User: Fold these one by one.
Assistant:
Number 1:
Amino acid sequence: MKKEDLPKILPVFPLSNFIIFPRTTVPLNIFEPRYIKMIDKSMKSNRIIGMIQPKKTGDLKKPDLHDVGCAGKITSFNETDDGRYLIVLSGICRFKILDEVNNDNLYRECLVKYDEFSSDLSEKIQEMKFSDLELIFKNLKGLFQKQGYEINWKEIEKQSLDQTINTLSMASPFSLEEKQVLLESKDLNLRKEKLEEILNTYILDNFNNKTLQ
């Protein structure tokens, strides 16, 4: 997909502790009436929506939004007997919000630009050695086990390295702010560094907790 094909005005789905990256896919269970309406409208047009994390500021019903999110295309759509939508969203390109658009819809729309993240649309994948990831894997496995998360590591290890880093960034039990840092990391090497930094703080915390007891 070219940058010109991406909508300038994007319906946004604010979801806390949830990020997606280009070339990753995520299943979503849609049940709130306003987002059912958003998906209805999107399915009739380009099927593109923006995932964005809300901040902890602003109105409870209308929180402030982080500046950077990721646009995704609905690639699978099913309706359940009780009126929910089960969709699969495929990440396309990250965006930056320029302004919020006042509309009569129940859901929110934003004027966005993709310029800073146009590299998301290129097919070129950054080279990275799997050995670079081994320590991250080891530390993450420990963290996931400690937090009671289940991950199919064998499946992840089959992915390309960029998919692996992005999948782990998305699935990790990190805070909203930490996930936002990973989402906004310009490229893969920077994301890998940030992932290591975040993990080191968790490992340090665990170490300190053990020594204090």
Number 2:
Amino acid sequence: MLALGLVLNTLGIGLFCWAIFALAVYALPFFVALSIGMTAFQSGAGLIGALLIATAGGALTLVLGQVAFAVTRSSALRIAIAAAFTVPAAVAGYHVVFAVSHVAVPSLAWREVFACLGAVCIGVTSWMRLIALVETRPLESGGVVENLS
């Protein structure tokens, strides 16, 4: 029975870690959806209305962010958009790793170290997933200049 518990705990922690990395890109849309939903609920929209408005707001944030990142040609604007999605993911990663490290790490200093490493890893993962969602445009020349004369 003890072996079964250890195996299931290991699988559960592994699934939890996978979910954190897989959902890192959606930290900003989730935050926006939660804020909009709470505001709508407090203003009297009701539970169903708040859920619908929150879902629409989060989906719109995700779609607009991805479209803006894909369409823009400016590197500075792309970095700003990617940072807007990455920073909330890194903050969420910091807090998750810090909370999980309470289970096995007794030293506060080491919990901070692990939490900072977790924030960096989850932030980089979010950055890379956002970049991977953008496809290269087929009509771009890829930096090759052709002579049109």
